[in-house]
UniProtKB/TrEMBL annotation:
Domain Oligopeptide/dipeptide ABC transporter C-terminal: residue ranges: 476-537
Name of the protein described by the UniProt record: Oligopeptide/dipeptide ABC transporter ATP-binding protein
Record domain Solute-binding protein family: where: 77-434
Gene3D superfamilies: Dipeptide-binding Protein, Domain 1 (3.90.76.10), Dipeptide-binding Protein, Domain 3 (3.10.105.10), Periplasmic binding protein-like II (3.40.190.10)
Species name: Streptomyces tibetensis
Amino acid sequence: MSTRRIRGAAVTAALTAAVTACSAPGGGGSGDGKATGPVVLGVASEPDTLSPLLGYGKDGNSKIFDGLLARDADLRLKPALAAELPKITDGGRTYTYALRDGVEFSDGEPLTAADVVYTYRTVLDAKTNNTFKSELDAVKEVEASGDDKVVFTLKYPYAPFAARTVLPIVPEHVAGKEDPNTGSFNTKPVGTGPYVLSRWSKGEKLTFKANPRYWGGKPKVKTFTMAIIGDDDVRATRLRSGDLDGAVLPPNLAATFEDEAGRRTYEARSYDFRAVTLPTANEVTGDRAIRRALDAAVDREAMVDKILDGAGRPAYGPLPVDDPAFTKDIERTKNLGKAGKILDEAGWKPGEDGIRSRDGQRASFDLLYPSGDKVRQDHALAYASDAKKAGIDVKVESATWEVIEPRMKDTAVLAGFGSTGDPDFGLYTLLHSSLAGDGFNNMARYDNPAVDRALDLAAAERIADRVAVMYAGRIVELADATVFFGPAGPRHPYSRGLLRALPDRAFTAIPGMLPELGDLPAGCAFAARCDRATDICAGPPPTGGALACHHPHVPEDVRA
């Protein structure tokens, strides 16, 4: 699946370990770690498509394509096809990118601004069958300014927008001649990245070779193959036999290679986590008492220790505990007593077999996990075991994603999600009701107006660290964004009027938040508290002119 998003009771945060050999049979590498020949890597699954228009590499993780921006090893944004980071103007509503000189697609055609415009417009086209166009909801228009400059105009200020532009760029002269949903570009891509696809044997392997036209220099590895091996144990066996040079393995299997001579283990810390979706449409999982009881009954610490061999941390939501946006003091340990009390008070009474029921409804539901994924299988079985101790019967079943997808609207799924660390990227798509049933977004179709309001308000708070509002050439309000967009709203009546007029979902979704617009004062209402205020700040603006605020914390483009 190109995108797999979930909503449910968080289970554990997994730390995926990739085990690779330092040398390979047949000259696949050398002892110093510099590859001199073909490399074969074992991976669990293959993509549905190789077209970014349908979601491939949309988070910047493709070796065939590049985005305007990319991320470095510390997940910080850096220029890729853009020559530099974007210029942001118009109060965060306009992003301008200058393209890097001399970039060519692998077929020798030059990259132009028209390719960027085509990519984004096609992704946003309602006729294009992708599940991530909602991630670009802020985009009003994207236009070329000559051959080497692209301008994005946003509907509303959206602070994380630059991170969305890691989306890979496709060539209009190739992809534009085909239907983006069914064209050959989906399996025969042309990009600007370091590698070119040389062969794709569906269900077996993908082989890549170095792109001689790559703008970033010659790759050290000339060719590599991704062998599709769905079973974790089989990948480990083939790695140990020398059939593979490297493999992505779950932590418990990766640990078995740590002491083997000639092999090296790499641990990749990530935002990846596993969770159980609890569909609201299901009579059992949609019951709030059942959901709260399961959250109390699950033993996250045991899952990390036993299933992940300690290579992970308990998760209490989509964000890890050391993320700056994580809400402190919400960590929870296993508490069967609390789970039992919640269910008792809600009328779920134990039967002779220990499984609870209420009004003839048995506390039982199915839990699906993708076939061949041993980590998710182990998590599902552990979850079911914990649930049974609370009197809830969870029946675990494996299935392919083709079987899971139509059932996930009312059947629990042991699903997974990962992000690049921006809270807005994961939380909104996981929880907002507007995305319920939108592909793998909000899989459980969670619908809670209070959560929607919080998510919308959080997006508003991310517009800027500080907000300055001008009236008649003067700053009439200067405040932290968290205060300005908080429940009480701005203090100045002119600011309130402006805020109410913004065409932004973040504000229209929370009617009644702001007081009514009142009379506007002649001068700056905040002059009395401003350390740079003068007498003129308290009076009306001079006839025929206006004064810019000289407060040092106001950005230059606002002051002017």
